Amino acid sequence: MTLLSTRGLSKSFSGLRAVHEVDFDLPEGEVRALIGPNGAGKTTFVGMLCGRIEPSAGSVSFDGHDVTALPAHRRIRAGMAYTFQITSIFGRLTCHENVALAVRRRNGPLSDVTHALDRVGLADRAEQLAGDLSYGHQRLLEIAMGLAQKPRLLILDEPTQGLSDTEIDAFCALIRELKAETTILLIEHNMAVVMQTADRITVLNFGEILAEGDPDQIRADRTVQAAYLGTEDA
Ligand SMILES: Nc1ncnc2c1ncn2[C@@H]1O[C@H](COP(=O)(O)OP(=O)(O)OP(=O)(O)O)[C@@H](O)[C@H]1O
């Protein structure tokens, strides 16, 4: 089943075509990576999926419903969760309290807080103030907050930025585990992470889909190499 799809999704900023007529389909249960050079339109595209950016044209469907006109909070309630490059945690609250906010939003049991912290390896820091965590741990806390919503779709924007090599390994293992529970859309610059975790990869370039395929196909694709891999940290 297709969980998320877009048709003709477009966004222009005063004439600049940041995203142009993108048709995108994400089947349920897949880990999909969205990659592309800086400025390719990834953040704008995901902003439109989540309801943070209003499209200039086109539509977004989630779970069989057209959600194009729904505000972000309604999409969250429908089962979308996302973490962004800019951290959204509350620094003066503990890790436990931060995740509890996400659990309370869907009236879930408090045991889900511990479970979510455990999943990302932060259980022993539950009582630590979120603001005192390292940047990498704050990113993991955000993922825990996303997971606590028990989402059908988890969108992760640059989740490994600021993580150490060991933390990146743990993150890749976590993604593989989460596959059984939720569909994942991963915006990621670290190609090793993409190649290890993604079932399929969508490559954006100048706001359009340049290629789509499994990691081997994308690795072998010459247009992708020219547009992206040659200029990035592949
Ligand atoms: N609010 C805005 N106003 C004007 N132009 C914008 C705005 N947001 C994005 N853009 C432009 O739209 C294009 C796509 O930007 P976007 O941030 O979506 O790319 P990206 O692929 O996420 O890049 P990065 O990998 O650097 O995060 C860029 O040319 C960018 O300068």
From TrEMBL:
InterPro entries: AAA+_ATPase, ABC_AA/LPS_Transport, ABC_transporter-like_ATP-bd, BCA_ABC_TP_C, P-loop_NTPase. Gene3D superfamilies: P-loop containing nucleotide triphosphate hydrolases. It comes from the Bacteria. Keywords: ATP-binding, Nucleotide-binding, Transport. GO terms for molecular function: ATP binding. Pfam families: ABC_tran (PF00005), BCA_ABC_TP_C (PF12399). Residues 4-231 form the ABC transporter domain. CDD domains: ABC_Mj1267_LivG_branched (cd03219). This is ABC transporter ATP-binding protein.
